[in-house]
Each structure stands twice: as C-alpha cells, then as structure tokens.
Amino acid sequence: MRIAVAGATGNIGSFTVAALEHEGHDVVRISRSLGVDLSTGEGLDEALHGVDAVVDATNAPPLDEAATVAHFGRITGNLLAAEARAGVRHHVLLSIVGIDRVGGNAHYAGKREQERLVAEGPVPWTIVPATQFHDFAAMVAGWTESDGVATIPPLLVQPIAPGDVGDVLAEVAVGEPQGRYADVAGPDPQDLVDMARRTLSARGHTVKLVPTWAGLFGPEMAGPVLMPGEDARIAPTTFDDWLATAS
Ligand SMILES: NC(=O)c1ccc[n+]([C@@H]2O[C@H](COP(=O)([O-])OP(=O)(O)OC[C@H]3O[C@@H](n4cnc5c(N)ncnc54)[C@H](OP(=O)(O)O)[C@@H]3O)[C@@H](O)[C@H]2O)c1
Q1: Could you read off the pLDDT of 74-126 as tens digits, one per residue?
Q2: Cα angle at 96 between 9 and 145, to 5 degrees?
C-alpha cells in the first residue's frame, strides 16, 4: 500500500514510517522540513497523489487554548480536504487517552478539535487514543528546567513506548477504518515524578524535581483520569525495558 505519514520526522511519526517500511509499504513522508506544510497546504496535493491511507502524527507548538484549537483545526482541515481530493480511503489520527475527562489543558482542547473534525470529516477514519509516551516525563521536566530545578506534576499514567505506538499506527493504517479504536497503553501504571527522576538519572542529568500541580497539569488531573479503559490494547514494552535501551 501507499501510505502517507504526516509528522514523519517526529517522535512517533519516525517509528510509524519504520514499521510501515519494514512491512514493505510505500511511505510518503510529510513534514515542513520535507517541504510539505499542513498549515498552508503547500506541497500537500502532490504528496497525497496515489495514497491509500494517511497517518496523522503531527503536533502543535505550546500555545494558549484558542491558538492551539485554531492550529490543530487548520492543519487537520487542510489535511482532510486534500485527502478527499486525492481519494484517500482511510485517515488514522493519533490522539490521547482521557482528553474528554479533563478541561483546562490547551493541548487537549486542540486534540478534541482534531477528533471532532476527523469524526465529522469526509474520509473514513480510525482514531487511536494512546497514553503518555515513556519519554513524556523527562520532556515535561524539560519545559520548566532552570538552574538545575524543574517542576513536575505527580500524574498517574500508564505510559507506552514510542516504538509500540508506531507499530500500532502502522498496523491500523493498513486495515479497514474502525472509528474509535481501543485505548492503547503500556503494561504498567507509573508515577510521573518517579519516571522523570529515573529517566534523568539514566541520562546522567542532575535535576532537582519539585512535584507540584501548579503549571500546565493541575489538580483536575489527579487520580485515574489519564488511565486507559478496561478494554485497552496493552503494548509489550515496559518502562524499565525502554529505560534500559532508549532513554
Ligand atoms: N507526548 C505524549 O506523551 C503523547 C501521548 C499521546 C499522544 N500524543 C500525541 O502524539 C502526537 C505526535 O507527538 P510527537 O511527540 O511524536 O510529535 P513531534 O515529535 O513533536 O513531531 C511532530 C511532527 O509533526 C511535524 N509537523 C508539525 N507541524 C507541521 C505542519 N504544519 N506541517 C507538516 N508537518 C508538521 C513535525 O515536522 P516539522 O517540524 O518538520 O514540520 C514533526 O515531524 C501529538 O499530536 C500528541 O498530541 C502525545
């Protein structure tokens, strides 16, 4: 099959490209650095020529809620319209578990807008909600790190390896559209503070971590709001396995 990956140079997009190519599919890579901009539509019609399915693993820069919703709305609308023109038969969106259970988070509001446009859009679709990635804790600490100190919310998560997310997206993309897919998660619940401490330690990076609900993730995210549903698809790679090989 000929499959386009939007966000092909990113964390999950690059694993998705690798998984699809491993199975012998013809992969079209989409990202601004490769000359295709979903915000403007530049290069998009050419990129989607002859494409059967599209995986959307793009991201948004940190913006306020209105700007994030506008950003995801623009790139998703442009992508879906181009897919309809090209006769693409399946749109696969990478989303996040639990975004309907949490208000006040700009990124989640943007992802909800993406989901709405996909579900109401012109192309048959599958939405794949994933839990936080194994590298999420260190990334969050990095957002506030200054003079050797970083804040981190004590979130309860059940993180998943980026490579496992790429494998699921590649598998879903070559199948029939399924609507809302099961939550996709890693094998074990984790505390985000502990994950950050262990990841930074494995990287030999000394940072004092300050657990707090002040910041982008507030107390409305305490408890099991980000945990996968009971029918979740559980991916194989544990946080410990990932830490030992990829941190
Ligand atoms: N982090 C988590 O724990 C987590 C958990 C579940 C789901 N997610 C979701 O996973 C998705 C992917 O995250 P990620 O960390 O893999 O993203 P990432 O590493 O930041 O990669 C984003 C990709 O999108 C491309 N891109 C951005 N704007 C674009 C545009 N206007 N036109 C074309 N390409 C564009 C980037 O390439 P260029 O810069 O070259 O354009 C890059 O290839 C996000 O939507 C996020 O909500 C994240």
Answers
A1: 999 999 999 999 999 999 999 999 999 998 899 999 999 999 999 999 999 99
A2: 70
Pocket of ligand 1 (CB under 6 A): 6-13, 30-33, 36-39, 57-59, 75, 94, 96, 111, 130, 132-133, 136
Give 31 Cα–ligand 1 centroid separation in angstroms: 9
Exposure b/e, 92-125, CB count within 10 A at least 16 = b:
bbbbbbbbeebeebbbbbbbbbbbebbeebebeb
- Over residues 25-76, the pLDDT tens digits come to 999 999 999 999 999 999 999 999 999 999 999 999 989 999 999 999 999 9
Q: Indicate which residue's Cα is closest to atom 2 of ligand 1.
A: 132
Written as six digits, the tokens of 1 are: 């099959």
Residue nearest to atom 4 of ligand 1 (CA): 132
Handedness of CA 207, 212, 216, 222 (dihedral sign): positive
**What spacing in Å lies between the alpha carbon of 74 and ligand 1's midpoint?**
15
**Residue 239 in 3-state DSSP?**
helix
CA of 196 from ligand 1 middle (Å) equals 21
Atom nearest to 8 CA in ligand 1: 43
Instruction: Say how many Å lie between the CA of residue 15 and the centre of ligand 1.
Output: 12
**Strand partners of residue 15:** none
104/8: higher pLDDT = 8
pTM: 0.98
- Best residue among 9, 34, 58 to mutate for probing ligand 1's pocket (most ligand atoms within 8 Å of CB) is 58
Output the pLDDT for position 247.
Answer: 65
